[in-house]
Design brief:
Strand content: under 5%
Oligomer: single chain
Number of helices: 5
Largest sheet: none
Order of helices and strands: HHHHH
Shape: flat
Number of strands: 0
Structural class: mainly alpha
């Protein structure tokens, strides 16, 4: 605010910087993974840049997977920073406890309904584009929207 910019401009600039960094880092990681594959794990069978679970065939999908991870973490951390800025430590602890309780309730529900097999089959059966790109991006958009909404009413 001291620089004469609005909260909206600050939030949009931060989001643009986050996306630009995510793409840049994702391209770097995809390039390092290509070098790793070409050298057969740097000569020792190492799978550091393409570990099982996120390793994808094709540079475009692999770059999207990497970029999505960076965007997700940045959006969630930005939303948590807004919560801390607006409600301080009490708000942050309250949010974390609410998320823990909600997650615990979902775990209890899945256990009570004996639904873990169905849940795991559903999650592992999803295409990589859905489970590693679309779902994390949806969470990132929700976190960014919540952060932006909270930032509108925050004070210095």
């Amino acid at each position: 605010l001291g620089l004469g910019i609005t909260r909206r401009d600050y939030a949009l600039g931060t989001a643009l910087t986050l996306v630009a960094q995510a793409v840049l880092f994702a391209l770097a990681l995809a390039g390092l993974q290509a070098v790793e594959q070409a050298s057969h794990g740097f000569g020792v069978g190492l799978a550091f840049f393409g570990p099982a679970g996120i390793r994808q065939d094709g540079v475009v999908l692999q770059t999207l997977v990497y970029a999505t991870g960076f965007v997700l973490v940045g959006a969630v951390m930005s939303a948590l920073a807004v919560v801390h800025h607006r409600w301080r430590t009490t708000g942050l602890f309250t949010l974390i406890m609410a998320l823990i309780l909600a997650g615990g309730a979902l775990i209890v529900l899945a256990t009570w309904r004996h639904a873990w097999g169905t849940v795991l089959d559903t999650v592992t059966g999803l295409p990589a584009l859905v489970s590693l790109v679309a779902a994390p991006l949806a969470v990132a958009v929700l976190a960014a929207g919540a952060g932006f909404a909270g930032l509108r009413r925050a004070t210095v």
